[in-house]
Amino acid sequence: MAKVKHHNIPLDQIIKPENIVFKRTKLFTDNVLSYCPGCGHGVAHRLILEVLEEMGIADKTIGIAPVGCSVLAYEFMDIDMQEAAHGRAPALATGIKRTNPDKFVFAYQGDGDLAAIGTAETIHTANRGENITVIFINNGIYGMTGGQMAPTTIYGMKTSTTPYGRDPKQMGHPLKITEIVAQLPGTCYVTRQAVHTPALVRKAKKAIRKAFEYQKQNKGLSFVEIVSNCNSGWKMTPVQAVKWLEENMLPYYPLGDLKDIGLD
Amino acid sequence: MGEILLMKGNEALAEAIIRAGADAYFGYPITPQSEVMEYLAAAKPEERTGMVLLQAESELAAINMLYGAGATGKKVITSSSSPGISLMQEGISYMAGAEIPAVIVNVVRGGPGLGTIQPAQSDYFQATKGGGHGDYHLLVLAPNSVQEMADFVPLAFDLAFKYRNPVMILSDGLIGQMMEKVELFDPIPRWTDEYIREHHGSWATIGKTPDRERNIITSLDLVPERMEKHNLHLKEKYDQMEREEVRYEEISTEDAEYLFVAYGSSSRIAMKAVKLAREEGIKVGLLRPITLFPFPKKPLERLADQVKGILTVELSLGQMVEDVKLAVNCRIPVEHYGRVGGMIPTPEEVVEALKTKIINR
Q1: Distance CA B280, CA B222 (A)
Q2: Residue B315 covered by a domain
Q3: Once rounded to an integer, what is the mean pLDDT over residues A155-184?
Q4: Cβ–Cβ contact B269 with A under 8 A
């Protein structure tokens, strides 16, 4: 079998449109991402932006950034965005969508934001069946403030406020908010995804696309949880964090659709 | 002449919300202003103008719905009463920081805590000094009649958009619940999307089109140099309000030797007290601040050269009196008289307080 000699092929024959297999979405700004290397936020951002670009709805979309590591999400997404107070993104989304029903609206939130301080807004916005999309990043920790316990911190997990591990007798139980949301009649599509392998990234993108398709059809609230890692907060290398996520997070937060009422 | 009706203050406010061309009302029930949302629900605003009406799960959610919708250049309004307004303070601070126009109505009841459902004016500090965290002000309008409950709604919207700042209508349980004759203004059409794009497209988050940079609504900036600049920009707006928006009313001040200063429901009592005192030969006038922020400092400075003493009349333990003292700079005696906990002073009590606290001090 003859060996391919790359060095014999001129560059202009390699760099051609038909050879491009991946490119950065135009909807990313040129700002440098503030996330730690190995974190899932950057991938989640990219998937949302790719979906908006592919659906051709970026000029009709208003995004909402939360309080937490993704507080600066508006620095990276080249669309109109609002920054919410901690936990209030679904209320903002309600206000935007009710007065602008022709626009696409998404709330991007972490676990502390969505499942602790913003629980009431999460539940009631879902229960009203607001035609919005919620992207929920669950890494079981408060990343921005330095690795404190989150409502989703799993049993025994060490954080800066549970240095000996989460004890349910004292701190209660990891909250499966996505399972709660799926029970509400106002939701149309509720799914749990992850982005730590290429195959899962592709699945997560399909889920996000579907969530926005549901919004396009005014079916109610679509909700995509992404189980992610926080290697800095977990005090691990990115590779260790991915392994730990698979062995510890996913058994408690199993991946897959929790609800899918069906698109037209 | 517009339509004349006999209405409660809260009802006149609600009717004015629809007529002012509001795009949305978000609220949560609380006494003594629950008639506002009840009136709106019965009036079917979605059929009359297309206005959105939504009962939120909390005041916290309601104010953040205002944030989201207001940040798209829509005319949005909420109403509540003291404990509910306290819950809204987080959102109000964010809106002031992010420069979102909106109107917030406080039909004040007595406090602290749950307090009472009876009228009070004990939220003056909260309304005029910021209320939430950070250096900011709301522009505060204080109606003293059912007529002004209606008329101040379109005025508040104009000011909110002129300054891109939340405006508060600081009413109280007395003005909200009492019935008076009111002449309603003719309906103002709601803004079209084209109008919003043309007039507020430079900042409103209505979808980024290729012809412009993205619009971001945020109160956050982690770079101190930029954050200071932003704070100074907000200060510029408050200074402009002080220059351009001071509103007040003077009654019988031309020959006055003494002065009442009172706003809202207290000013109605003080008006009667002026009459009673003058029947006794006491030359007293009334200055009624209509804007509480910006506060009418200059007319007070002027009147301090003329009168021998000032009595503020407030349904509080003495809040506005501090601003009056600052305005007259201790040149003449300034005292406070008030009833609290839902109690309302009679005009006779006010005249008596003028005698004991100022004239015969």
Answers
A1: 63
A2: yes
A3: 97
A4: no
Instruction: Write b or e for each residue in A74-113: b if 16 or more Cβ atoms lie within 10 A of its Cβ, otherwise e.
Output: bbbbbbbbbbbbbbbbbbbbbbbbbbbeebbbbbbbbbbb
Q: How many residues does this entry show for chain B?
A: 361
CB contact at 8 A, B21 and B190 = yes
**A59, A81, A103 ranked by CB distance to B216: nearest:** A81
**Residue range B255-270: average pLDDT?**
98
* ipTM for the assembly: 0.97
Number of domains in chain B: 2
| Min Cα separation A49/chain B (Å) | 13
- Which single residue is written with the structure tokens 């972490």? A110
Q: Which is nearest to A26 in space by CA: A53, A63, A62, A64?
A: A53
Q: How many CB atoms lie within 10 A of CB B254?
A: 9
At residue B335, the pLDDT reads 98
Q: Single out the residue in B155, B184, B213 at which a domain terminates.
A: B184
Q: Domain containing A234: what range?
A: 33-260
- As a whole number of angstroms, the distance between CA B101 and CA B203 comes to 11
pTM recorded for the entire structure: 0.96
pLDDT band at A6 (very low <50, low <70, confident <90, very high): low
Q: Do B54 and B173 lie in a common domain?
A: yes
Q: Are B80 and B88 in contact (CB under 8 A)?
A: yes
Show the domain range for B101.
3-184
